[in-house]
Amino acid sequence: MIPLRHIYIMAAVFMLFFVFTVYDLNRQLHQARQEITDAKKLELEAGEYTVREMNITMYAPLSAGAVRGQDFAGNPALTASGEKVVPGETAAAGPNIPFGTRIYVEGLGWYTVQDRGSAIGPDDIDLAVETVEEALRFGKQRRLVIFKGP
Description:
Distance between the termini: 79 Å
CATH superfamily of the largest domain: RlpA-like domain
């Protein structure tokens, strides 16, 4: 015969197992609901974005080593759209990408297209940085670019 206290212990262990199982299932259900909500939101927003692989370069119009005609034309502090150049935020693109377009460059972050450049083609993005040295170190790279319309 099994002592009564062993029966109580087994019942308590079973109840704890049951409670933790229900808790875990509830947590998984909540997580699944959140993932479905997030997926629906992304699906609705997906139409707002375009993804392309592009040539990425950098330019430094505000740098002491900037060269007229290479790093800037006209006032080096102003973009072709009339906005101020902000290193780490300003991007230059061809006329196929309207001013004000928000872009995400893979591994580098979000930028706003506010500038143009004579050597920038439809498959090119030029990002404003602080120094000419930084631009030269980066060189020319192919990266994914996500566009969000203006």
